[in-house]
Design brief:
By secondary structure, this protein is α/β, with parallel strands linked by helices. It is built from 10 helices and 12 strands. Bound molecules: guanosine-5'-triphosphate (GTP) and iron/sulfur cluster (2 copies).
């Protein structure tokens, strides 16, 4: 099977990775939660076995990377076991709110796992306002970040969603915090990722001005790099790598979208922002998975077009 035909959509985008939502469950309730655009479906979660089978099968047709997300992926008790059973891939990563990290880290198989942790503020009160968390959760997330670094899950990324009037005065402090972490754990150990708020209805007033922030980063960066995925820019600021995720109205971002999503109940989702073109994996044989994958790839189109 030739990956450049099976994995390429009609806009020439070569699918390299799967973004798999493991659950819709979460122990937080963030102001901006989009639950990976998964608002419909049966609510049943794929078994660990199904997840591993999908990955093994699609590795054979050219998938090189896997990202696990949620809800909160560590709400799945079997995540360490799923990770241990995965085939070798170029990149395996998980995006988490970090609240369960401290406990789960010792149980994770160390297979070059990258971890992205949401941290939208360095002030506990704001953290509680943004995430709905109770007291003490914020400090456990900070301890989880330290524990992950200590055990070598690097580079670790901190995800910071820019929220107008809530945390848009904290970018500088976040850069300093990452600088301190890098002094402790080694240069380049921690990356800061600034994320533009995605609006799934009703919260556009909270979107911070990412263009302005990016303009400032550009003006003072020692180096600027461009990632293949989404053509995201990375700015090197005082030794700290700051990656900018700016999807809104950004046709360049969508033109370089190379991931296919899988919902927690086992459907391929061609685009984060669309709910009308999901493809169910009805037949869990290898051929059934590949056929559903092909149908989903054929349905892919950039959400924002130039
Ligand atoms: N519109 C859109 N937004 C995305 C997409 N991928 C990521 N994002 C946004 O970026 C946020 C953070 O993504 P992460 O889960 O940390 O993963 P990532 O940064 O995309 O992936 P890595 O850099 O490989 O770790 C998501 O919550 C989304 O808001 C995408 O394909 N489309
Ligand atoms: S931690 Fe993630 S999944 Fe949970 S509420 Fe916040 S944004 Fe949603
Ligand atoms: S097409 Fe655009 S909006 Fe849709 S998932 Fe890809 S980058 Fe995100």
């Amino acid at each position: 099977m030739n990956p450049s035909t099976i994995c390429r959509d009609r806009y020439g985008r070569r699918i390299r990775s799967l973004r798999i939502s493991l659950t819709r469950r979460c122990n937080l309730n963030c102001l901006y939660c989009h639950r990976e655009g998964e608002n419909s479906g049966c609510g049943r979660e794929m078994s660990g076995e199904m997840i591993v089978k999908i990955i093994e099968t699609l590795k054979r047709v050219g998938i090189e990377r896997v990202k696990f997300s949620g809800g909160e992926p560590f709400m799945r008790e079997d995540l360490p076991e799923i990770l241990a059973r995965l085939p070798d891939l170029q990149d395996i990563s998980v995006t988490t709110n970090g609240t369960l990290l401290e406990d789960v880290i010792p149980r994770l198989p160390h297979r070059r796992l990258r971890i992205n942790v949401s941290l939208d503020t360095l002030r506990e009160e704001r953290y509680m306002q943004i995430t709905g968390a109770g007291e003490g959760v914020f400090s456990s997330v900070l301890r989880g970040i330290d524990e992950a670094c200590k055990r070598g899950f690097l580079p670790l990324k901190l995800n910071f969603v820019l929220l107008k009037g809530i945390n848009d005065d904290e970018v500088e402090e976040m850069i300093s915090y990452v600088q301190q972490l890098n002094e402790r754990w080694g240069r380049g150990s921690v990356i800061l990722q600034l994320i533009e708020l995605l609006d799934f209805g009703g919260i556009e007033d909270l979107r911070g001005d990412m263009r302005a922030i990016e303009g400032e980063l550009m003006a003072r960066a020692d180096e600027i790099r461009c990632r293949e995925m989404h053509h995201r820019r990375k700015y090197l600021i005082d030794g700290v790598e700051v990656e900018v995720v700016r999807p809104m109205d950004n046709s360049e971002f969508c033109a370089n979208c190379n991931r296919l999503r899988v919902t927690s109940d086992g459907r391929f989702k061609p685009c984060l922002l669309r709910e009308d073109n999901l493809v169910e994996i009805r037949d869990m044989t290898e051929q059934g998975i590949i056929d559903a994958f092909k149908r989903a790839v054929a349905l892919r189109e950039p959400f924002f077009k130039g």
